[in-house]
Each structure stands twice: as structure tokens, then as C-alpha cells.
Amino acid sequence: MNESSGTPVGRRVVLGMLGLGAAGVAVGPHLQRVVEAVTSRDPTGLSDLVPGGGGFRYYSVVASVPGRTAADYELRIDGLVDRPATLRLADLEALPQTRIVHDVQCVTGWRVPATPFEGVRLSLLLERAGVRDGAAAVRFSCFDGAYGESLTLDQARRDDVLVALRMQDRPLGHAHGGPVRLYVAPMYFYKSAKWLSGITVTPEVRPGYWERLGYDVDAWVGRSNGRDDAPTG
Predict the structure, then answer these.
(1) Which of 142, 148, 123, 167 has the alpha carbon at shortest distance from 211?
(2) Which residues belong to any copy of the Oxidoreductase molybdopterin-binding domain (predicted)?
């Protein structure tokens, strides 16, 4: 079956998914693994409506996303760099890790306070790759085959931008964009691309998936009412 065609789902299944999501908000992390197990195997995209434990919502722009494990995950770094590289999950885990605790804010309005993320600072990966003259931005691609994002080079070099491997003190699950995702702490969550597969240094910012549909390219939280883009502690 073509993935994009999905699988017919009845009304009872849809209501069951929404009920499971509501229960997840009530009981928190104890149901999170169950919700992730359901959403990671859902070919319909309907589980993107389910709120997960702690108030998260699950979003994908495709019907289903293939999983990646430590055995087959790869992150490609290329573009305007002196030393292109392909990193496995173990390579990323071996690098210095940074922990950031910050509110997650979705542009649609929901918020999850004081959420811990851990991973490798993007600035470290860019430094190791050697950014060339003429570079001004970084483009991110994802192994869902559809999503993409960009940051200016200055934004990408901030200390509160991570290539994240952990969230809420455990490895990133598939539904949260694992095993590796981008995390841009001071911006709305759509900038934190899930299922990260590529980091490409470019001469200019290229609008991401939602930005081509009208979202802000500079997605600072609170932009409409004043912002604080000082580095996150």
C-alpha cells in the first residue's frame, strides 16, 4: 500500500485516539510511552491530533514517518564547509552534551513549561565542520522526506540551539522527532525540526515548510509583544 494513501479508520478509533490523548494530559509521563507507541505506528496522520503526556501535541506533514534506530541513523553535515561529515548516533553521543531547561511554546498556543532537552550544541558541529566564507545560513532536512527548516548563521551559533538527543531526561522517542531533532529554545517549536537528517550550510536563508505557507522565518517567541533573545541558561 502507498504510504500516502493511509489506512481507513473508523469513528470509534478516532474517538479512542482522542480519548487516549486526553488521558495522557491527566496522568502525564506514565502514559507517554503508550501514546508514543500508538503515534509512531499510525499511517493515517490522525494521531497528530492526540495531545501527549505533559501537554505536547504530535504533528507531522506526511502520513507516516519511517523509524530510525542507533544502527541505521545518520546525520549528514555538508554545504559551505571545509570538512563534510556523516555522523552516527554514537558519534553524537560521544560529543560534549548541553542541557537546557526552557518552556516549549507552539505558535498555535499550547505550551509545556520547563522542558529539559539535552544534546550537542549546533555551534560545535559547525565549528568542527569549518564554515566557509560566504556562508550566511543553515538549512535542516528531515528523514520524513518533506519537512525542512532554516536559521541564519548567527542564530545557529547561539548557545541555546541544540542537535537534541534527549528530552525530559530520556532518549527522544520517534513521536518527538527521535532519535535526533533540532531544538531552538528561544523560537516557536516549528523551528525545532523533528527527525533531523541533514545540516547544510548555505549562502542565504531558505524558508522552511511552514514558512512557505506564511509562518514567520524569524520565529522568536513573543515577537508580537516584545521578545528576549538573550542566550538561554
Answers:
(1) 148
(2) 64-210
For Cα atoms 123, 191, 73, give the angle at the middle one, nearest 5 degrees: 65
Tens digit of pLDDT at every position of the chain (233 positions): 233 333 333 334 334 444 444 333 333 333 344 444 444 444 444 444 444 445 676 667 777 888 999 999 999 999 999 999 999 999 999 999 999 999 999 888 888 999 999 999 999 999 999 999 999 999 999 999 889 999 999 999 999 999 999 999 999 999 999 999 999 999 999 999 999 999 999 999 999 998 998 889 999 998 754 555 655 54
Ramachandran assignment for 168, one of left (phi > 0), alpha (psi -120 to 50 degrees), beta (any other): left
What does the block give as the cell for 95? 560529543
Contact of 122 with 156, CB cutoff 8 Å: yes
Question: 20 — phi, psi (to 5°)?
Answer: -60, -40
User: CA–CA separation, 144 vs 66, rounded Å?
Assistant: 7
Q: Which residues of 154-189 are buried (b: 16+ CB within 10 A; e: fewer)?
A: ebbbbebbbbbbbbbeeebbbbbbbbbbbbbbbbbb
Residue in the structure block whose three cell numbers are 525540526 = 193
- At residue 147, the pLDDT reads 92
Question: Which grid cell sits at 122?
Answer: 549546533
Q: Which CATH class is domain 74-225?
A: alpha beta
Residue extents of the structural domains in the chain = 3-55, 74-225
Contact 219, 190 (CB under 8 A): yes
